[in-house]
C-alpha cells in the first residue's frame, strides 16, 4: 500500500499517487512474499520494500532447478496498444536485487520478451544496460548509452514507466536517472526537463485536454477501462483539476462520472445520471453514498465489478485512503456482482491488472 500520511476531507490533498480487496474483487488470492525484512501474509498490513544493500542483486544460485521454480509477482509498467502506460502483474524470478530486476524487465528485447502480455511492449531501448543504487528513499538508476536511442514520442512514457515500476516498493519514494554516470537534467531526445526527482507526483498518462491555465490546477489520478485482445484492464489517467477544489474525494468521483472524455479508447461503466449524495472519512476509510443510478442496468440492488473497481482504485491513489465502502441513498447491504457486500470496506488490490478479473 502506498498511502503514507493521513487524508483529511476538509483540506487539500495532493492526489499524486499507486492490495487484495477484502471482497476478492481484483483477482485470485496471492501470497506476497516480502523482500526484507520478512513480514506476515496480511495484505492490509504487508509492505513490500527493497533492501538498500541488495539493489544490485546476487544471481548466484546453488540449485538452478529450484531457483527456476521460485517466482514472485511484480508490477511492470508497460505500453499498451493505445500508447498508455499501464501496470501489468507478471511473475518474475525471485532475486535480492529487485529494483535492478524490474528495470531490466522494462528493456525492449530483454527478458520481458518471454512474458509480454498480448498488445503490450517494453519501452526502454534495446540492449540498454542498467545499474541501480539506493540513497535513502531515492533509487539511482544509471543506464548505458543505448538508453538515448528511443523515439521522441516515447520520452514521457519512458519516465513514467520507470518511475511507477520502481515506486511499487514501499521504501522507494522517487527516482534519479543518469547515463554513463552523468545525471540527466533533461531527456536526451526530446528535451523533457528533469528538474526534480521523479515520483508519482509527476502523474501518469497526463490528460490536459480540458485545461486552459495549468498553473491554477493540481493533479488527480483516476482509473478508466481499456480493452486489448479481448482482455479488459485498468488505466491510470492523471487529470488536472482546479486548485480551488478542496475535496479530492468528490473531485475524483466527479471525474469518474464525467468519464474519460477525449482520451482515446477508454471507457467507464459509471452512467452520467449517477450522483454522489455524500461522503465521509474515518481511519483510512471513505464511505460514499450514491443515488440509485449507481446500479446501472441491474434491476437488483447490485453494483458492477468495473464500477466498484474504478472507484476503489481511484480513491486509494489518494494519500491516506486505504479502503472504500458504498451505500445507496443511505442504505447499507449493497452488494457487487458476486453478491458480496460493498458497504463493508473494500481495499485496493496488491496488484492491479492480474489478468484474472
UniProtKB/TrEMBL annotation:
Disordered: annotated span: 34-66
Coiled coil ranges: none
Domain GerMN residue range list: 99-188, 249-337
Domain of life of the source: Bacteria
InterPro entries associated with the record: GerMN
Signal peptide stretch: none
The name this protein goes by in its record: Germination protein M
Organism in which the protein naturally occurs: Litchfieldia salsa
Organism lineage: Bacteria, Bacillati, Bacillota, Bacilli, Bacillales
Amino acid at each position: 500500500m502506498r498511502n503514507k500520511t493521513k487524508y483529511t476531507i476538509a483540506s487539500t490533498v495532493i492526489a499524486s499517487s499507486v492490495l487484495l480487496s477484502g471482497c476478492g474483487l481484483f483477482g485470485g488470492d496471492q501470497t506476497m512474499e516480502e523482500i526484507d525484512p520478512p513480514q506476515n501474509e496480511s495484505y492490509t498490513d504487508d509492505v513490500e520494500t527493497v533492501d538498500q544493500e541488495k539493489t544490485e542483486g546476487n544471481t548466484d544460485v546453488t540449485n538452478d532447478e529450484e531457483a527456476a521454480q521460485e517466482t514472485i509477482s511484480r508490477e511492470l509498467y508497460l505500453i499498451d496498444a493505445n500508447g498508455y502506460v499501464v501496470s501489468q502483474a507478471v511473475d518474475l524470478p525471485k532475486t535480492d536485487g529487485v529494483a535492478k530486476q524490474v528495470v531490466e524487465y522494462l528493456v525492449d528485447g530483454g527478458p520481458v520478451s518471454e512474458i509480454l502480455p498480448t498488445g503490450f511492449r517494453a519501452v526502454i531501448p534495446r540492449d540498454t544496460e542498467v545499474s541501480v543504487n539506493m540513497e535513502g528513499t531515492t533509487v539511482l538508476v544509471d543506464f548505458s548509452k543505448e538508453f538515448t536511442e528511443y523515439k521522441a514520442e516515447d520520452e514521457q512514457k519512458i519516465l513514467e514507466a520507470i518511475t511507477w515500476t520502481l515506486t511499487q516498493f514501499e521504501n522507494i519514494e522517487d527516482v534519479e536517472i543518469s547515463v554513463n554516470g552523468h545525471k540527466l537534467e533533461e531527456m536526451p531526445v526530446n528535451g523533457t526537463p528533469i528538474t526534480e526527482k521523479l515520483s508519482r507526483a509527476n502523474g501518469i498518462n497526463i490528460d490536459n485536454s480540458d485545461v486552459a491555465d495549468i498553473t491554477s490546477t493540481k493533479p488527480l489520478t483516476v482509473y478508466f477501462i481499456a480493452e486489448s485482445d479481448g482482455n479488459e484492464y485498468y488505466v491510470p489517467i492523471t487529470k488536472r483539476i482546479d486548485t480551488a477544489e478542496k475535496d479530492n474525494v468528490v473531485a475524483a468521483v466527479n471525474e469518474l462520472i464525467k468519464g474519460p472524455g477525449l482520451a482515446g479508447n477508454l471507457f467507464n461503466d459509471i452512467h452520467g445520471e449517477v450522483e454522489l449524495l455524500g461522503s465521509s472519512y474515518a481511519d483510512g476509510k471513505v464511505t460514499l453514498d450514491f443515488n440509485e443510478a449507481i446500479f446501472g442496468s441491474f434491476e437488483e440492488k447490485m453494483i458492477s465489478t468495473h464500477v466498484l473497481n474504478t472507484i476503489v482504485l481511484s480513491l486509494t491513489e489518494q494519500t491516506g485512503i486505504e479502503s472504500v465502502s458504498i451505500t445507496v441513498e443511505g442504505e447499507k447491504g449493497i452488494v457487487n456482482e458476486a453478491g458480496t457486500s460493498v458497504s463493508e470496506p473494500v481495499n485496493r488490490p496488491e496488484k492491479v491488472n492480474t489478468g484474472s478479473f
